[in-house]
Amino acid sequence: MENIKAQKLLNKIQRDLMRNGIISNTLVEDLKELRKLVVEENIPLLAKALRLTYEHIAENEDFEIAIPDDDPIVEVEDGEEIEVTDEEPSEEITGQESLEYMLSLMADHSNKVNELELREYVKALKEEAGEDY
């Protein structure tokens, strides 16, 4: 995001989220305002992610989308690919942590890895809403 106002609003949303958690009415309004600024900058991926996010929060009073999984590690053993899994159980991630992570991706959306993860969020939000993707 190049717009200073959009950057400041994103920072405000992140601070509020960290301090107060998900307070749906103010969060939804801030996300709607941020979306307007993103649309002005012509960043369709962020606009879509923000719209789906505030619609999801308004409907569920929470953010129920998990952080996208990392790609599995694949090793080749005896000419056969084997997926390697972590032996340690992963800790429970809250919706707030997932939302904080998604917002951090938006701050540097032009990074290719961040863009891919944002697309995963959009896909998950669409699936949750029952939309085709």
Summary?
By secondary structure, this protein is mostly helical. The protein contains five helices and two strands. The protein has one domain.
Which features would summarize this protein structure in a list?
mainly alpha, single chain, 133 residues, two-stranded antiparallel ribbon, 62% helix
Overview of this protein structure:
This protein is mainly α. The protein has one domain (4-129). It contains five helices and two strands. It has helices at residues 4-20, 24-40, 44-60, 95-107, 112-129, and strands at 73-77, 80-84. It has a two-stranded antiparallel ribbon with strand order 1-2. Strand 1 (73-77) and strand 2 form a beta hairpin. Helix 1 (4-20) packs antiparallel against helix 2 (24-40). It is globular and about 55 Å long.
Largest sheet: 2 strands, antiparallel
What structural class do the secondary elements suggest?
Answer: mainly alpha
Oligomeric state of the chains in view: single chain
How would you sum up the global shape? globular
In whole angstroms, the N-to-C terminal distance is 25 Å
* Portion in helices: 55-70%
Instruction: Tell me the total number of β-strands.
Output: 2
The helix/strand order is HHHEEHH
Number of helices: 5
The total domain count is: 1
Task: Report the uncertain regions.
Answer: 86-90
Write down the Rg.
17 Å
Strand ordering within the main sheet: 1-2
Strand content: 5-15%
Overall mean pLDDT stands at: 86
